[in-house]
Fold:
Amino acid sequence: MATKLLLTFAICRLIVTVGLTLDPAELLRLGVDGQLSVDPSDVETASLDFGLLIRTEPLAVLHPASARDVAKLVKAAYGSNHGFTVSARGHGHSINGQAQTTNGVVIQMSGSRGSGRMASGKPPQPRVWARESYVDVWGGELWIDVLRSTLGYGLAPKSWTDYLYLSVGGTLSNAGISGQAFNHGPQISNVYELDVVTGKGELLTCSEEQNPELFQAVLGGLGQFGIITRARISLEPAPQRVRWIRVLYSNFSAFTTDQEYLISLQGKPTSQKFDYIEGFVIVDEGLINNWRSSFFSPRNPVKISSLGANGGVLYCLEITKNYHESTADTIDQEVESLLKKLNFIPTSVFTTDLLYVDFLDRVHKAELKLRSKGLWEVPHPWLNLFVPKSKIADFDKGVFKGILGNKTSGPILIYPMNKNKWDPRSSVVTPDEDVFYLVALLRSALDNGEETRSLECLTDQNRRILRFCDDAGIKVKQYLPHYTTQEEWMDHFGDKWDRFHQMKMEFDPRHILATGQQIFRPSF
Ligand code: FAD
Structure:
């Protein structure tokens, strides 16, 4: 009864605000098994994200119990006379309001199962198919829970993000990248099948063979074509342990030459390559002994000045080798023979050894530390760019040694990937070269009087970096892109725009879905 009253209230609010002519009884008859809520705390949560830069309140929030609930709501939105928008929200870890919506309903895909709020039914638990080496998961499942469910079978997904408290649907709508991408491709290259609720409210299964156009469009599709309710993810035998190594460079060219050499080993047998290749840029002394670097010994802090950093900037290559305890006797030799081919500063090798799970979940530890200091829930004007290999040295000169001015406000990641591991049919766009780098400026803005850490200053720096790339002819593509006009989006998608637009007309013709991306305006 209470649920029914709450639902009526939610629907009345929708009707008053958007002037729907729908009969409330009609929406009530939708009979979702989950919960449609206008609880202020639900609305508040759905109006925010990790970026804390944009705030848009939805009219209501649906906590779905199943794909059927998702389909019922989208169908109602699609079929209504005046229409309302619907945005899936995973874990809300976007930066620029991508999962928010105004004049519409947010479907809170992550977290419903544990909340105990559901009237009847909950989203399905992960189902592992051990013999076939894949797992079926709910679109709102967090990657940490995917990992926990597969480890019981001695299996694990192959391609990761650095941080696991992100939803499957959220990362598959972008790409999902980390240091394994050079070898396995992004997460979108490691999916066999999806269930998707399109913008017409149809629930379709898609894969390479079945509805292939929808499958490719949804992968990296920024939530524009449908809501992923199930993903079938490829698995491999889970390693037990990880040898985790960091080495330093003062010379950028030596650093990138080594990174590019290491990713060129992608086709070699496992024993002859690393499993994970990333790197980061150290532009001031603060960072090297900071959060992502907690692994350098606190008793032996690294001094940039003692390492002959060129232009005050150091580069850290971060690599890992996975292993099973049964093969522990060969790991030292394998690592040694790979390291021998590299040109890092000889005294700068930092090694640690840990459980595979602890390695994958490493950023969560940093999160807990930052939370305890009140430094997690702050604005995050992040900038993530794919930079073509041919221009990465220009980027170094102009940005790391130029615009950043030896000041940073968070980790700066840099690592190359092989384009041949990215399916050109997916919606994601990457530079037009065989190798391109991710450069991720993961900054936190602080209101502590330090001008260089203010939101204004960091946002301005982002603008200057983009302008510099434009002026210097560095054809970057934004990862987790953020634009506000269709012209900018057309430019972003380039050759892929016509197809993207065509798929939108086919699968979400009223432009109901994921309006927070600001690519298409609702057509009502
Ligand atoms: P949300 O922010 O909730 O949603 C993102 C977009 O996807 C929205 O447009 C939304 O409408 C849409 N969407 C959400 N769920 C679905 C669904 N089921 N079906 C269809 N569309 C959906 N990314 C990487 O690739 N690698 C990293 O290592 C990495 N590390 C990160 C670390 C941190 C601390 C943070 C905050 C982000 C990181 N990201 C990384 C970025 C992250 O992958 C994206 O922000 C991703 O969108 C977050 O997932 P989410 O579940 O929070 O999505």
The longest strand covers residues 226-237. The pocket of flavin-adenine dinucleotide is lined by residues 49-50, 87-94, 98-99, 109, 139, 161-163, 166-167, 169-171, 173-178, 222-223, 227-228, 480, 514, 516-517 (CB under 6 Å).
